[in-house]
Every structure is written in structure tokens, then in C-alpha cells.
Amino acid sequence: MKKYILTGLLVWLPLTITIWVMLQVLGVLDGVFAGLIVAAQTVLPESLRPGLQSLRSIPGLSAIAMISVLLLTGLAVTNFAGQWILNQSNRVFSNIPIVKSIYTSVKQVSDTLFSSSGQAFRHAVLVQYPRAGSWTIGFVTGKPSGEVAAHLSDDHLTLYVPTTPNPTSGFMLIVPRSDVVELQMSVDEALKYIISMGVVAPPPHLVVDNTTARSHTG
User: Fold this and answer.
1) DSSP secondary structure code for residue 165 in this structure
2) Are residues 81 and 109 both part of a single domain?
3) Torsion sign across C-alpha atoms 52, 56, 57, 63
4) Is residue 119 in some structural domain?
5) Which residues span the domain enclosing 160?
6) Strand ranges (DSSP E) for the chain?
7) Is 98 left (phi over 0), alpha (psi -120 to 50) or beta?
8) CA–CA separation, 140 and 137 (whole Å)
9) Which of 83, 114, 145 delimits the end of a domain?
């Protein structure tokens, strides 16, 4: 009986957790969408308010609205007029006290992480942490710059080492390039390996020469 219960648990647990996570995300989106509708009702004519109120009861509309807004925003900023508006808004937010510190920091991080030309989170690597002889998986986020780079004589890399099973928290390490071993697994495979605490191992990849891998990391 115990064997059958565990087998049934293995079938239902991934599906249940997936549905729960999706419901949580939809709940957050519905809350934001409802707040926007309430704000719109305060400025629109009385005749349009009942129609807006009825939109709150449509399930999944918030997710569709968010995807539509992201798509339209992406299309808008690809032309000259959209770029001008974006630059002006960036200039406004960058000149507001307190707000500029948060806005510019988040913008720099998001531009680095999600830019198609950026190198952040493009490679999974092995690094010795938290002591020599103990290995963990990290992700290359770039190279040291500014004052930090001026104090380092050799070639170094900046790494993000996530925690398990929650990869959204972790540590930033600056290590010599020679101490980093690049992995052939993809970033998605590495994340699965970390989140599963090493249980879900990625498929075997062709092991390349260590010197070639380190040079490719840069």
C-alpha cells in the first residue's frame, strides 16, 4: 500500500504544485488588473463604468491584458516615436529624488539580464564554494569593472550562485577565471538541477577541453 501511495503522490504532486503556482500568479495579476479598473472608473464617464466592472469577473482576462500590454509596448518602442517617448520617460524618472535610485538600479539589472546582446545568465559553470574541494553550480553574470576591477590583477568573472531549492536568493562571487569550469548544460537544465537539490540530473553532455571551456566563458 505504501508503494502505491508514493507512486500516486509522484503522479499528482508535480501537477498540483504547477496548478497552485499558476493560480498564485493569476491571483496577483487579477489584483493588479482590478486596481487598474477601479482607477479607470474614477476618470471615465458614468456610462462606461458598468462595462468596466463586468470585466473583473472574466477569468484569465488579466493575463491576456498583461501579455497584450507587453506586446504593444514592445512594438511601440521599436519605432522612432516610441524610442523618443521611452527616453523622455527614463529622463523624468531618473531626475526624481529617491525614485531615481530605485528606477535606475532596476533598469540596469533588467537591461543586463534580458538584453539579447548581454552575457548575463548565458553560461552555467562549476565553482568551488564555500570552500576548496566543495563544488557548486553558478551562473556567469559578467566581469568586474570600475574600482573593483582596479584592485584585481588577474582576469576574473562575476558569478551568481543560487541557493537550493529557492534560486531567487543566492550569493555574488568574484572569482579568477582559471578557477571556473564551464558546463555544457543549458541554464534551464542547471536551474532544474539546483531546484531539485541534485535529484533531477541533466542528460550527459560532451565534455570539452577545460582550457577551451574557460576561454569560451569570456
Assistant:
1) S
2) yes
3) positive
4) no
5) 124-217
6) 124-128, 135-142, 156-162, 170-176, 181-182
7) left
8) 10
9) 114
Among 160, 158, 162, smallest CA distance to 192 is for: 162
CA distance 160 to 66: 29
- The cell numbers describing 4, all together, are 502505491
Q: Which of 128, 119, 122 is nearest to 178 (CA)?
A: 128
SS3 115: coil
Q: How many domains are there within the chain? A: 2
C-beta separation of 77 from 83 below 8 A: yes
Q: Select from 90, 114, 138 the last residue of a domain.
A: 114
Residues 185 and 163 both lie in one domain: yes
Residues 23 and 97 reside in one and the same domain:
yes
75, three cell numbers: 512594438
Its pTM stands at 0.56
Q: What is the pLDDT along the chain (218 residues), one digit of tens a residue?
A: 888 888 888 888 878 888 888 888 888 888 888 888 777 777 777 777 777 777 777 777 788 888 888 888 888 877 777 778 878 888 888 888 887 788 777 776 676 666 555 556 778 999 999 888 999 999 998 888 889 988 888 889 999 999 888 887 889 999 999 999 999 888 888 888 888 888 888 887 755 555 444 444 55
Positive or negative, the CA dihedral 70, 74, 77, 82 is negative
